[in-house]
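Two folds, back to back.
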Amino acid sequence: MSDHQGEKVDSTGEWSVIKCSHCKFTHVLPLPSMDDYYRTHFYSSSKPDYIREYTEDREWWNSVYDRIYDCIEFYWCRRRILDMGCGPGFFLARGMQRGWDVTGVEIALEAVKSCQNLGVRCVSSIEEAGGEYGAVSLYEVLEHLPDPELVLRKSRDILISPGILAVTVPNDYNPLQLQLRKHGVRPYWLSPPEHLNYFNEDDLCGLLDRSGFRTVRRLSSFPMEIFLLLGMDYIGNPVVGRQCHQMRIRFESMIGRDLLEAIYVGLGKLHIGREITIIAIKR
């Protein structure tokens, strides 16, 4: 019998969504292996405009990344970082601008090419990365993995003490999403086989604790669900989705950094925000 058992909380298509008593977080069943999909199809089929839009929004992305680097740099560590699932490499390119020695792990062919164009060292596995690192980043990666704890433990193994881990995941089944469900909105955040795991803050911190990390800081982000509550239905509509994204960028650019941080800290205490970022230290 599979170790993955628990209360069924949702379903979508052929997938069941359970609160797994073994993993202690919510994930889909069955759990597939997706290496070939991510290697050759993820950017071309699922996100054909991703790298182009990323490039257009690079200034904003740098502000997002600066927030993460500021948190990592608050805690002393060797300025050598490994970014697992580094995508097009923009996070690491920003790190190089800040004086970091950077390496990315990525298998998607189009993303690897982007890394090469940016001068970012990119390898295909954590084993190939080699050496010891002062920090590891997992930015919107754990939700894609059939065994996130395994990757976290491998990340811990390559960190020198005191090593820093920065993890960002979607904040799923959050209070605003649950409110939308009450008004008949389908669970649009469920997207297997791309997203296999659905974390809240407490479950993510518990997973990090079991993997050998101590949480030291928790961050939130802009609650994109507000647009749905205001009647801007971006679900399945990339044009409206892009408009909403640009409005978020405008909001964040108009708010001073200190006030923006205070707003997101406050929202985080209410478990509101589209993403969760956890900064943790290797135990």
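---
second:
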Amino acid sequence: MSGGRGSVWAAAGGCALVLAAPGTGDAGAGQAGFRGEGALLGGATAPHGELRKTVPIAERRGAEPRTVLSLPLPRVRAGDRLRFNGEVTVTTTCVDRLERCIGRRYGFDPRLRAWVVMAQGAGTTGGARARRISGGVGLACEQTRPNRNHHCPLVLSDRFRVGEVDGLPCRPGRCRLNMVLSAHHPNRRGGEVVVVGADRPDGSIEGGKGRLNAAVLRAGSGVEAVHLESDRRRVRRLPASFEGGQRVVYSRRIAKPAAGDILLVRARERVRIRALPYFVGSKVVVTGRRNAIRPGARTRRILSRRGTATETNGFNCTPGPSAFRSPCTVSKAGLVVVERTPRDRRGRRVPLFVNVVSRTFPKRAQAVRGSFPPARILPGGGLDVALLRPP
């Protein structure tokens, strides 16, 4: 499932798919369109759904917020419950005068913050046409070598109950969830930016590092969540590998998934490194095997977003002071909709597995490729799957 910067929704009760068409009012954002109704709906922004490539660094906190991801909702009703989560990767740039520099050069550590609003338009961040419905997450993205983070993912998860629709900041059929990002630092001079996604050596920007997800539980539907958890570490070490090296760190079996189920996923890892900064990259996939690092052919056909619950993103874990100092905490949040009941070739129902997959490699330009110590997976992490099932 893909489609530019729109979104994909799935509905329980026949599991009707809802594909968003390109919008006419909000450039590149997408408008919601429906086929069918259901007690439980799940949706996510489309692949490479970031609305902007950069966000300006302001002098004061919250002074120049921008919408970076926008998800059009189905028509909301009084009493509906929203459960949503998302990730966005923010990248600092222009420490040195290099070809990859984007915007004005700066050496300070920009302070980042993200939150979610319900709004009328994709670009709306506040005012009468927006209402903040989540807490904020933030950090200072370290610029100073050798403890430079470079990439700084922001991850959030929250819920919201719709009151009277007359009190909404949007018309019931035109509401959106917008993930809003702000960056600031008092030493900014003007022209400095952070990148939404990842910067490339040629100065281009790679998106596809963030996603906004939501489940809509219709008023009076009786949909409840069953929480399935696991804190068992499948591996204790991650090899320092420049190619490959992916390992399943946590896994949770979903015994009897059925069409219309929604899996809301949250995960946490604690990773320890030594000596050099290491890049730590992670993703969450839903597949048919406990040790699989990617969805198989069958699960790609029956799950939303081809079985990827989150995007793949990461950061530089550093031995010295930074926002991600060893032992570093990896946070992930995502969603998958089961569009068809998983069955084997004989038609028997089969389980699914939610797998947290990670890899690491050293991050120092002058490091000679050779043997490096593995990163260690410490206790204190785990995986939480909220299984939402229509009545």
